[in-house]
Amino acid sequence: MKKITLLLSLMIACLGLQAQSVFINEIHYDNTSGDVNEGVEIAGPAGTDLTGWTVEFYNGSNGSLYATLNLSGTIDDEGSGYGALFFLQSNIQNGAPDGLALIDNSASVVQFLSYEGSFTAAGGTANGVTSTDIGVSEQPAPPIGESLQLIGSGSLYTDFSWTGPVAESPGDINAGQTFMGAVVGNPPSISCPMDIVLDNEAGTCGAIANFLDATAIDIEDGPLPTTQTAGLPNGSVFPVGTNVVEFSVTDSDGNTATCSFNVIVNDVEVPTVTCQDVTVELDASGSYTLTTTEVIASSSDNCAVTGASFGAPLTVSTGQVPFNFNGTGIIETDAVITAAPTTFGEVTVAVEWGGDFGLTTEVLDIFGPDGTSVYLNNASLSDCQIFNDSFTIPAATWNDWVATYGPDLTFTSQPDTDVDNICVNQYYQLDVTVSSAVATLDLSCAELGENNITVYVNDDAGNVGTCVAVVTVEDNIAPEITCLGGVSGASVFINEIHYDNSGADANEAIEVVGPAGTDLSTYEIILYNGSNGTEYNTVALSGTIDDEGAGYGAVNFPISGIQNGAPDGMVLANNGTVIQFLSYEGSFTATDGIANGLTSTDIGVAEDSSTLDTESLQLSGTGTYYPDFTWNAPTTATPGDINTGQTFEAPSSSVFDVVLDANGMATINVADLVASTSDNCGVVSTTVVSGATPTPQNLETTYVGGSGIRSPMFDVNVLSDITIDTFDVNLDDGAIMDIEVWAKTGTHVGFEEDPGAWTLLGTAFGVLSVGDGLPTPLNLDLNYSVAAGETHAFYIASEDKSAGAGFNYTVGTAVGNVFSSDTNLEVLEGVSSIYPFGTTFSPRVFNGTVHYTTAGGGTPVSSFDVDCSDLGESQIEVTATDAAGNTATCTATINVLDETAPILVCQDITLPLDENGMATIEPEDLLAEGPTIY
Question: How many CB atoms lie within 10 A of CB 872?
Answer without folding.
Answer: 9
